Amino acid sequence: MDSQKNNEKQHITIHVYDMPISIMVPKEQEALYREAGSLINERLNTYFSYFKGQKADKEIIYYALIDIALKFVMESKRNDMSPVNDILKELSAEISEALK
Asked: pTM to 2 decimals?
């Protein structure tokens, strides 16, 4: 029953720049989707305020997408634990060897 509750979805509409986007989202993630929509709008508004009249709307949207993706990639790399895990494995092997 608890897993069924976690799978419940609801219909929401997020306004992204000048377009309403209707999507089904897990209930527990609604706030995250709305926050994501706000982030997109913030970046789009920043780029449109800077480039409107100088570049095509589609190009401005691509600039905002690149900005958002870059932040995501940088954050993913910052949170990458594989170097730490590699060091821990090495240290564990050295400790095991020293205790023999």
From this structure: 0.69
